[in-house]
Specification:
Structural class: mainly alpha
Strand content: under 5%
Order of helices and strands: HHHH
Number of helices: 4
Distance between the termini: 58 Å
Number of strands: 0
Largest sheet: none
Helix content: 55-70%
């Protein structure tokens, strides 16, 4: 009931399905139609979106959290004997936070 066998199409039925497309491949274009396919020019103007105070506040809060994390990692590495330098954690954190800030400030 649910799984009925689909009717298979014959070879001529499949060939007829694509028959209307062949006329576009073998016809000569009209004289005015040749240049109609090309784009003569495009002009796009983007107005700069105003800065969002809310997003800047979120960015500032994130920077405070990043700096708090960096101080916590540095303190933990100094207090407890860990076999690595804390800058292996602090460096990438500051680099990614800086990248996010630069992307926000330099956006179009």
């Amino acid at each position: 009931m649910f799984f009925r066998r689909r009717r298979t199409r014959s070879r001529t039925e499949r060939r007829l399905m694509f028959a209307p497309l062949s006329r576009f491949n073998n016809r000569k274009p009209e004289p005015g139609e040749i240049d109609a396919g090309f784009v003569n020019g495009v002009r796009v103007e983007h107005s700069r979106e105003p800065r969002s105070r809310r997003l800047e506040l979120v960015l500032a809060v994130c920077w405070v959290l990043v700096l708090a994390k960096c101080f916590a990692v540095h303190w933990a590495c100094r207090t407890y004997a860990v076999p690595f330098n804390p800058w292996w954690l602090i460096g990438p954190t500051l680099a990614v936070a800086s990248l996010c800030t630069v992307v926000y400030w330099r956006r179009d």
